[in-house]
Amino acid sequence: MKNxxxxxxxxxxxxxxxxxxxxVFLYNAGCSGSGSGSGWSLCNVPQEASLSSATRIGxxxxxxxxxxxxxxxxxxxxxxxxxRATKVGTTKDTEYAIxxxxxxxxxxxxxxxDKRVALLAMGDEGIAAVDIxxxxxxxxITTVKVNYYQDGISWTEGGGDVVIDNVIQSTRGPIxxxxxxxxxxxxxxxxxxIADEGYGLHKTALDNLLDETTGREPDGTLLVEQExxxxxxxxxxxxxxxxxxxxxxxxxxxxxGYLGMGIFDPIxxxxxxxxxxxxxxxxxNNGEDWxxxxxxxxxxxxxxxxxxxxxxxxxxxxxxxxxVWHGDVVAPTPWADFERYGKHYYDxxxxxxxxxxxxxxxxxxxxxAYGLGGLVAVDVTGYDTAISRDxxxxxxxxxxxxxxxxxxxxYLGYVPALPAHGPDKQTGEQSQSLFPYFxxxxxxEAGVVDVEVNLADNQVxxxxxxxxxxxxxNADTPEVNWHGxxxxxxxxxxxxxxxxxxxxxxxxxxxxxxxxxxxxxxTAPAYIFESPILLATGEVSGHGNVLSLTGSFDVANSGxxxxxxxxxxxxxxxxxxxxxxxxxxxxxxxFATTNEVGAAADGSASQEINIGHTEGLTxxxxxxxxxxxPHGMSIWKIADQNCVATDDVHLIANxxxxxxxxxxxxxxxxxxxxxxxxxxxxxxxxxxxxMSQSRGLRRVNISELGTAGAPTLLYxxxxxxxxxxxxxxxxxxxxxxxxxxYDVALKGSLVFTADGSNGLTVYDLSKDPTDATSGYIxxxxxxxxxxxxxxxxxxxxxxxxxxxxxxxxxxVAAGQAGIGxxxxxxxxxxxxxxxxxxxxxxxxxxxxxxGKSVAVKVVGNYVYFTYDSFGVVVYRTADLIAPLIEGTDPxxxxxxxxGGEDQRPNAVARFKLxxxxxxxxxxxxxxxxxxxGMDVVQVNxxxxxxxxxxxxxxxxxxWSNPAAPVLLQHTNTVGFAYDIDVVNGRxxxxxxxxxxxxxx
Length: 1000
Fold this sequence. Notes:
The chain has three domains: 449 residues, Methylamine Dehydrogenase, Chain H; 85 residues; 401 residues, no CATH class. The chain contains six helices and 75 strands. The strands form 22 sheets. The chain has a five-stranded mixed beta sheet, with no helix packed on it.
């Protein structure tokens, strides 16, 4: 028996007569739990799993809604795809629940025909209508998907060629938000406004949603009566998909993500106004945004601007790829800089609007939750009489009497988002890319998420991913009062290097003091403790998410619930706010995402368990090991002592549900496994190795586990923490960026880690990591960014030994760089063989695959790589390790446009779920989703692949013939399927915001 096994080993079943013979690896945490057992145990005997039925544990809370019933206020919220209702109060009341097909992203409550109905936006699953007239007996009225179609689109593909007349279409439009519009005319039915991130805006009569006979298209999707396309393409990733809808005084304010804010007439759906922080060149904000004082019009090549959005267009994208990246032209690259580095600072998610009246003219302000750009206030006065532009040229049209021109909203002021925890000093000669930054995995969620206005008290309530709920005063005068006490443009936060090098990532802020000060277990900018900020709660049971102000809102006094706030993977909180002389808050009621009881820092069974950030897992024997981001690692009993799978799954051990150490006494510190991304088991040490984003690799002893209701607290000792960028600085000179461990492969005591922008890093687990001179950091390839080779952004690694030459290789999923091959025969002197992006044919044009490689698996003499942009590609090991022509740069084995022989290997096969020409299904054309994690089980000579397919769920593929995969089964999941593992005839899925999914 081997003394080492890798994450998700390929398990093989050999049939001999009627007996199944399987030599079983047993240790104290194994399937018997006693350290002894029989070789005839069923533990880890490979079995085929079905994907037919599912049970979910946990999930994220991403939406809230409030309504009154029987003189009581109720809150609606979700745990993944489960809609829950409970009374609002300072004591916890009964929860009622009902399931719908998709993860709930928005709740709109409407009264119709004496019924109170909750309209739910469910992403790709469309819309659900739920009767909540009696909250204790909710029932689903209908569910329906939404289609879209748009042709004539031009974009630039990954090789730099402009591709015209593209078509986007789907019967699964990703629905993000809903609003019901009443134009005041009794002859006009109520209208349902729909935000579709894959297309734009749809509108139909609300009756069409509720009528399953006349309210459907021939394909079964919702009958749409009117729509407008709002997207822009430059590259192959769209901008402008609507994320949030806000109806205000007869106009529709739309949060359009990377295109900022759009204002639309809800009757005609014509756009009558906009604001985009990125294209705002008025400098009213003193350049306080990621690109400081850049003017996109001046930065692009002449004319390469979209006339309607002011953003770089597809011609600019083509120029940058072909002429700048692959040519000798020296020129600005605003499209690439925005798409790769800065776009999360321009991500409009939610809008709230308020009008202020007084001695002077009325003023209307829109408050935009702008992601990492912060909370941005803009003047939209005149929105109600603004008219649309010319539909072809997008030039303003002269207004008639009592009309105003197309509204270009003007900047008034802002509050910075808390930085995405970038380093506070330069750690290496890196580009401006955010990839090396701490917390990169949370960039899409970081920043300001939601916003509400308390008009009576002239305050704005908003949520920040890291700061929790915040309150700012002077809502009516942000242009005057939204700055620190020293005054506007009075703070120099550019403490390192030149302005624009983004060290740190808040260097452009001049209106607030960004000096880090202690805040709980970490630091936060000083401004959140100073006027005009009235309150910053910090994280309340998790990261700040959506919120609603209650009907009992009274912040002058304590003792009532003022705010209902979600924490994403941390559940829902009722918050009592008191903004007196000493602002404070309490959380009298909290709803966790599971009913499990975990071990607290003192070891007692008193810790609530929240699951909702699941990204990685490993199952072995009777146990499942789950990585859930800030909640660390948890262990679940999934089978009995004979490894017969059970539906009664419970937690039996956990690390801290905190990201920070807890000191018990002078001799004992309980360390967490923060930002847990994935888990691997190490048979040598009888431990779990937890991949902790930004904090390296953490080894956890799993020899003693508890039981349901009496879980064991697990934690790494100081000698179990392996990282190369510690709080005091870099441990070795050849590694200067922070740890980002995405995947691990073991070879004896050596662990090869896919280390993000650092490439491939090797640790020796037999050495003492508390001693920097012990040699626990063995070597690295790809971390020295001043030289070649470079392994891109490594997220997957697998080892393979050539039986003929005895050479050993690491195959690396290198992110946007594609596929890496490294000779690791001598771990102290690793040699890059090649890095390349797979061949992609566009008609007769030879190009490269777009997107990023994610994970890698070796099966026999074949290597399989998952890609987030399409699916899976497989190569022969012999082709991957084949030597290059002498003198070839291993990073340049093919050059766009020629200039040398194309030495990229041909793939044996390429699989795409949504493409029937690539072994997929015609019924899934138009679905979102790309491949992520995978597992392989070998049963009676068949190679069965189980693949986590992101937004498309999970699939089972018979890949016994490497050149001809056969799709056997597809099952959609509620969240984003990151990882999958199969054991004991069951499949277990890390489903992101969908929690932990059990399939059988």
